[in-house]
Amino acid sequence: MSVPTDRRYGPAVLPPPRGPVSGAVLAALRRPPHDLPAGLADLLADGVGEWTGPVADRPAGVDPLTDEDRQLTLFLCYELHYRGWVGVDEDWEWQPSLLALRAAAERPFEAALRRLTGPLPAALPTGVPAALAELVAGDDGPSLARTLQREATLAQFREFVTHRSIYHLREADPHSWGLPRLGGPAKAALVEIQMDEYGNGRCDRMHAELFRMTMGRLGLDTDYAAHLDRVPAITLATNNLISLFGLHRRLRGALLGHLAALEMTSSLPNRRYGNGLRRLGLDEVATRFYDEHVEADAVHEQIAAHDLCGGLVRAEPALVGDVLFGAAAALATDRLFAAHLLDSWAAGACSLRVGAEPDGLVGAVAERGATRAPAAA
Q: How far apart are CA 234 and CA 164, in angstroms?
């Protein structure tokens, strides 16, 4: 594999393992493509958390959404379809035994998402925009945005941005998997939203680049996936579910519902994030990413509900339930993510993983061979 010298744009550096399955996958990816050891899928029958002891002594019953080993395994597999991994043969992307393992990891993950969302409201295709609005209005999750606006410390804001970097440095990419799977009004609506996400063809206005500037102002390493080892399973799960939806054509409705929920819940939180950074003394370069979303997502909200999701279910009425599931999954996993951060902070603890780099600056420098310092705050 050709490795770019500019690590801001990938591929990513392989992280340390978080259990026996991710450990076996990591060991395999460092070699040419080959069949994985038999029995790996059996280790994913129950969630095991982050377990490094003997396999026979592993506890069972950990929620797949918070299972460190499962979520990292999924992320390792999914990233092969994005920018790949440094030093990993690109033929691993379609290696049959790895795809089979991914499927074994996905089934309990999807089942856990469906349990988490619970029963969904019934709706006719014409009622989907209203049903989406009802789901959003009924979301009673903890207000992470309010805390960041009013009282979070600079260190806590840096933690939040570190978590979000896993998504925002490739923002829009997972939802773009929907483009070749759509036609007509829904496709046109998705293109309209994605054009804004990608800066209408200007690199400096791409939302991922605006977020990179925010990270730089906060003194964080801005390389792609630089903070992967620092974020816990729930953060990986909020990213993995979009890849799950995007890489399975049968879940295209859920993918669009997920995007609609993001757009419909974005404007006010982003206003609060920007105001929180201003309260902490950060400049307009640091807040530009959030300020941009206040206006853009107010427009996207209507496009996503009416033209994107409404257009899809008018053409394919059978996908109404999938659209609502995707939206509900986005809201529910974000509630878990917010609760993790707020509970950690209430306990006086860091929300990032114990044992990872303490300050997030220039992550994994030795392995990447990087010499570039992060942008100054």
A: 12
CA gap 345, 143 in Å, rounded: 13
Give the contacts of 334 (CB within 8 A, at least 6 positions apart): 141, 238, 265
CATH number of the domain where residue 345 is located:
1.20.910.10
Is the Cβ–Cβ distance between 172 and 211 less than 8 Å? no
Task: Give residue-wise pLDDT tens across range 239-292.
Answer: 999 999 999 999 999 999 999 999 999 999 999 999 999 999 999 999 999 999
Domain carrying residue 287? 122-368
Given this model, what pLDDT does residue 232 score?
98
**Helix segments in the chain, DSSP class H:** 20-29, 68-79, 96-117, 128-137, 144-150, 154-168, 173-176, 184-197, 207-217, 233-247, 252-264, 267-279, 284-302, 310-315, 320-346, 365-368
Contact 245, 251 (CB under 8 A): yes
**pLDDT tens digits along 119-149:** 998 999 999 999 999 999 988 777 999 999 9
Flag whether pLDDT at 51 surpasses 60: no
Same domain, 92 and 173: no
The Cα 287–Cα 265 span in angstroms is 18
